[in-house]
Specification:
Oligomer: single chain
CATH class of the domain at 393-582: Alpha Beta
Number of helices: 19
Helix content: 25-40%
Structural class: alpha/beta
Shape: globular
Distance between the termini: 35 Å
CATH architecture of the domain at 393-582: 3-Layer(aba) Sandwich
Strand order of the largest sheet: 24-23-20-25-29-30-32
Amino acid sequence: MKRYPTPVSFCAVLLTGLLVVLLSGSVDAGNLTVTIEAGDYLVRQAGDGHHTIDVEGFGYLLTPGTPKLPARTFMIALPPGASVVSVATQAHSTVGLPGTFRVAATPPIMVPSADPTKQSESLQQWQSTRDQVYTSDNTYPGRIGDYLGEGALRQYRFAKVRFCPFTYNPLSGRLTYTPSLTVSIDYDLTGSARPIVDAKAEARASRLLVNYDHAKQWYHVDKQGDMPTELYDLVIITSDELVSTLDAFVAWKEQIGFSVNVVTTTWIYDNYSGADNAEQVRNFLIDKYAQWGIEYVMLAGNFDVVPMRICYPDSANHGHDPDFCMPTDMYYADLSGDWDSDGDGYHGEYGQDNVDFVPEVYVGRIPWNQAGQMDSILQKLVNFENDTGVWKNRALLMGAFAWFEGQNHNPLYPRTDFADLSEFIKNDIVSTWTTTLMYEKSGVDTSYFPCDFPLTSANVVNDWSTGQYGVVSWGGHGSYGACWRTVWGWDDGDGVPEYEPPELYSEYFISNSEALALDNNYAGIVWSTACNTGVPEYVGLGRALMLSGAVGFLGSSRVAYAIGGWADKDDGLVATMNYYYYHYLLNEGLKVGEALGATGELYYANFMGDHVAHYHDLFCYNLYGDPSMTYQGLSYVCVDTDGDGFGDAGHPENMCDEDNCPDVFNDDQMDTDMDGVGDACCCALRGDFDHGTKGLVDISDLVCVVDFMFNGGPGPGCPIEGDIDGDSGEVTDIGDLVYLVDFMFNSGPTPPPCP
């Protein structure tokens, strides 16, 4: 038997010295410190002399009337079971920019109400806030770093910290830049320290969490433990009466790689408790999303089959004005948020309830209950996903006026032409496509932009019914069954657009009746930047288009707020959401429901401000359609369970490279020993260096580590098993030896599980 006298003696000496080091220091298990950085920045000056600051990767703090300054909310992963006790922030390397600046104010938020006094009050509040801030030299914002609470993405819990790298002193015009911010989080370990066995979040977590490289060690998938025996990435919730209509659709989804489970509301209500049916459905999803590996939830039926949650973002409005209390399906997507934190029975209140806008699952709905209608819509969805035709590279973009400058003798009304939105989509997202543009060309004040046709109902129905468009987008005013253009028809000589005398009038450009003329063989994805077109209680425009003209519809279930004078993709609210939805769907290639989830995540991180409107618009935009549907069609198929971009084995239709580690996120596909099994999968137990007794770390492993490090002995069979402390990827270093010695002789922590 080969003996190891020298290494063991060295180990004993090393242990003595290392114990002194280990015991002389203190490790605070309840503190996490992370430094976050601002990207490159650019200060732009507009023609009116105002400055705008752009920071790479940042949006803006959009509180009406205050300086429009860069901001971003960072998600910092917390250890499993951690609960935040306190958060401290420390700015670094703060410098003043030379010169003086005139930072533009955040534009006003337009209140979508038939009562003109509400809009006047909102504009007056904007002016009051602007006057108060800009007649002072107080630093704005008051805090560079701001803790906003906790949230979660499936098993990953995180703290939300907003970083504002620029501050502004309005009277003196001083602009100050802070390039980095250190965040120190004290926490208690009060919850379960065992992460959920759930690999579905890895790709998203790697993009969302600033400290993902550390967090993935905490939130491992324990492959040696019990794994779920039932996996369903797509769950369909419906009534008993509609189950049979889903057969062909389910067969299609399974053919292209999905595992589907159809669950009835009857079964859910019999097996799950809750204050009402909506809570019962949500409790079912909370219970099963990790266990079944659910990624997509399709609600087959209107709100009276699968209920929607009514939300009250304005905590002062508990139903007296139903326009501002909206039905939302986001309730079934954000399964970790506390939708009624204050326990008052009113969900989704801004400033009172803790909704984090990071979805655990992606949700869509087919908003019809009749079997024939359901069957027709589902077949249309199958046809679309199985279609790779060039017609999908055609877009119909429409923009109406929402408001005119100085409207009705109110000087605060800003000119707002939604042709700006269409131009951003055309130039940034579908620049290589064939596009048809329709803008306002009638009346006293018309759109500055050229277009293919004036925006009229006749032009819309004639072109859309024959144009074969994969994408249709518009901005204007909305009602349950139509979208409207506002026209300044004539002027009495005072240069002011007025309702009395009736210089302003409205005409619809698309309505339910026009939808009947559209070609269902070329139905596309429609986003309606307008009020009420997604209302579920009536046969609204969105529901009508799902019968004829659309395979996906995104519209507001109630009125929608907008930014007055919206003229930039980052100005905020519904038009900004519209822009980024198509960015994620088309530029990033996300699925139909994923694009809506990514839009909400981005909006919360980059465009929130101190106003209820942001919550309101995020709640009221729901997806009618299949959240798992691929826009591009099936010319490219990649069944990829762990979401790392490499396909699962056993799927002959896959066109992506085969994954060497199909159950664990492994985007670099490292395979050190080149045996065809990725390093992330070969690990059974960290510290089991010699594999002598499988599943056991003992003295022979310590001997082998020392022999490897100091005598050139053989390395571990699997590189990750030699990374005993879990902090250096796949490298065995002195820290691993210290960790192993502490574990074996000093009752130190157990080596962390394999990833």
